[in-house]
Amino acid sequence: MDLKTLQDHPTLGFVDWTLRGIGQVVFQNNMLTGIVILIALFYNSWIYGSICILGAVVGTLTAILLKADKGLIKDGLFGFNGALVGLALVAFTSESFRTGAVPSAYMVAYIVFAAAFTSILFSSLATLLGPHKVAALTMPFVLTGWLFLFAVLKFDSIHAGPLAKPISPDQFPATAPYNLPTWYMGIGNAIGQIFFQDNWISGYIIVAGIAINSRISALMALIGAGLAALVAVIFGGPEGAIRDGLFGYNAALTALALGGFFLVLTPASFLYTLFGVVVTTWLWASVAIFLKPIGMPVLTSTFVVVTWAMLIGQYGFKALVPVPPAEATTPEDNLRRYHGTHT
Amino acid sequence: MDLKTLQDHPTLGFVDWTLRGIGQVVFQNNMLTGIVILIALFYNSWIYGSICILGAVVGTLTAILLKADKGLIKDGLFGFNGALVGLALVAFTSESFRTGAVPSAYMVAYIVFAAAFTSILFSSLATLLGPHKVAALTMPFVLTGWLFLFAVLKFDSIHAGPLAKPISPDQFPATAPYNLPTWYMGIGNAIGQIFFQDNWISGYIIVAGIAINSRISALMALIGAGLAALVAVIFGGPEGAIRDGLFGYNAALTALALGGFFLVLTPASFLYTLFGVVVTTWLWASVAIFLKPIGMPVLTSTFVVVTWAMLIGQYGFKALVPVPPAEATTPEDNLRRYHGTHT
Amino acid sequence: MDLKTLQDHPTLGFVDWTLRGIGQVVFQNNMLTGIVILIALFYNSWIYGSICILGAVVGTLTAILLKADKGLIKDGLFGFNGALVGLALVAFTSESFRTGAVPSAYMVAYIVFAAAFTSILFSSLATLLGPHKVAALTMPFVLTGWLFLFAVLKFDSIHAGPLAKPISPDQFPATAPYNLPTWYMGIGNAIGQIFFQDNWISGYIIVAGIAINSRISALMALIGAGLAALVAVIFGGPEGAIRDGLFGYNAALTALALGGFFLVLTPASFLYTLFGVVVTTWLWASVAIFLKPIGMPVLTSTFVVVTWAMLIGQYGFKALVPVPPAEATTPEDNLRRYHGTHT
């Protein structure tokens, strides 16, 4: 069956949109990418895999009920923030961050409301950012995640353990030496951490899933995570935080967004992307240290802030070629169209 | 004398605008509502009643001096943020939150500047939000309140006691059982807390004041406060915080805004409103816990954030019928006009 | 040689743009002002003087490489945020705030990235604020400064001492009496603190530099710093903080921006400016106390917030005459043009 047909199928379409929603976390409007990502999650923990589906389903369903734009729904754009907020709420309230815990009925209700709220926030941010031709990115997830995570710690019906996961570089010992696993585990984990997976093999499976849709994007994810590790090593970041991929998951997303997806890939935009990756890496450390006293994780906030600044800012720079969100498909397609119009 | 005539009266007009300003806190452009609200405040404490008038007068006067839009002034839109910031500054610097304390001359000067600043911020936010057809709501009050409350604690000339009022759910004992007063006092107090009145009878007087202008709005305020209490009970929020109306005052405002005022009341928008009330309730707890370490109260921030998100977001949803701020009068009028155009 | 010619010179032009960039910190598009400010900095510390040049050069160079608008570059608008962020990063990581310390190679790399990022943020904010005819002011510096300052404290390769400088009024003894130096040193220091110079003589040299380009602006800077000191004295602020100019540097900038530069100087706008100065002074104390627990300085955040609010807000007020950023040159020119069109 043609994949495009599935997207327009009256009943099975919903499955397609949900899977695309999972792929959209890493900018891949492709249901196969979504399936491979789910495999990566289930490989690490069936709980995370199921929650990811739940979040994407609720986000997409909310948009359908509220009669949002059909095109956006079909491209999975109402699913990825819901998936992420579900994963975050489970990850930061479970005793084991690694595997997650089966949420209580209260917690499930909470996740459903949170995932639904991301769809409203997505529409809200899309309206506000529309005139500036910039996408909402994962900001709906970040805002909803922060707001819902705080409250969860104080309701009697939801038993949240203490945060099981270090959320800031200064919670790691500063003396461990860098070695080979720092690099190959650090890069894999960074990709995994985008989905809250503390599992470097899951990370590389996700890279493979991205490569199905765009090899440039897959390469960018690796470059982003790798450069982040390099910057952290040069500036003496703690080995444990680097190996865990904490310095790199925001940086990998910045590389995905700027590296060919929202900007046509040229030598200038590649340098611009590397600059963004370095800044994102530093800012992750900055925001992590800022948020630690109140016990909040960074989520993907620094990726969003840096990418917004660099994408809105570039409209004042002639050295770069922007791709409006509505036209951004894959780096390869963007390049093809750009060279088509320019030859 | 015709009430409309009073609004246009050369000298008495100012009294009318100020009273409407007090009514506008709960979205009622009606001087009688303003009078009843003042009665509710004076019933609890003459200090709060007087400060409420002072704040509304200063806010309105500032707008007149700066030659703001006459229509906005006459509808009381420059008064409600000033009234609230005056009440907040007194409430959180008095030894008794319940009755407030007569402010010093320094404090009065401070309140006057703060109330005047809300009018500037109101105009500023109205300009920024104009293109998105969303009102500034009480954001001028929230921002001014936070900024001015902090400084007040450190000037020698203003003797601020320690915050007399618990501002976060985790400051209440977690063990008290829920009972009947949890409900009827909790709902009344929630309406009262909109005006910083720790008095459930004042709360119900305010509901009566709202009903003069709109029965749907009065009902929505009760539904918002009631559903907030229900959500807090289900999720095990502390009884004391529920009975004090803390979970409910933001939720009641969200219900007033979304329930027929800025959205035509339909089954879909009613469900949307209930969703917003639930989210507002959780987020109040969230923001309260977030702000507690720095000693700041939530004020009406979660109402504004959720309502903004849901009103801006709904422009992407066809399931809802928006009412632009300039046309929003009462839920009843909105319904009438909507059915007028659609029959 | 004509100064205008220098601005357009193919090779020496860059020197001119950089010097204007330094002048633009205090709204003076004038290379001579830039030179006098540099003299004031070198008089206090050659390290700060050099870092100021570095920051302005990097900011301007980034804009050239990214092919930003030539007119903005030539007016020095990509230099002033870079200069400030360089100064801030050195000031708050040196053992002696007064003289600064020569930064390490790591730190220099860090400053270069930070200064470059301010140019991207400047373009970003200019895009967002464009429709509202308000300038980005020093917000790129404030945001970059905060984000980069935090991370710096946790990288092994950058040895940051504990903040050498009190950043909040409550870190000063509350008992010291006010005396003459409170005033003349306080006002001079306030101007100096705009550039992180704890040196009141440098402050007055900077005022002289401003006066070269605009006597009204020079007077406004003094009025802003003086009124801030007066407000702080009346409300019992600590003498040490007043003498150090901490209450006044944001207030001086607000006075420069509102006092004739972005609003035509009239009796009404002068009162509006004084109001803004008072509010800025209080809010500096407020934000300082808010940020102290996380160890962050206020930078020029309260100047930006108050000035934005008052400039965006005034578009709703007919009592004031705005000057769009693109046309704002000097208070004198603004007056001349205004009277030209109105006679």
What does this structure look like?
The structure is a homotrimer of 343-residue chains. Chain A is mainly alpha-helical. The first copy, chain A, folds into two domains: 1-165, Orthogonal Bundle (Ammonium transporter fold); 168-343, Ammonium transporter AmtB like domains (Ammonium transporter fold, Orthogonal Bundle), CATH 1.10.3430.10. Chain A is built from 16 helices and no strands. The longest helix of chain A is centred in the middle third of the chain and has 25 residues, at 105-129. Chain A is globular, with a radius of gyration of 19 Å. Chain A starts with a helix and ends with a helix. The interface between B and C is medium-sized, with 32 and 33 residues.
What is this entry, summarized?
By secondary structure, chain A is mostly helical. Chain A has helices at about 5-10, 15-25, 30-45, 45-65, 70-75, 80-90, 105-130, 140-150, 180-195, 200-215, 215-235, 240-245, 250-260, 265-290, 300-315, 330-340. The two termini of chain A are about 35 Å apart.
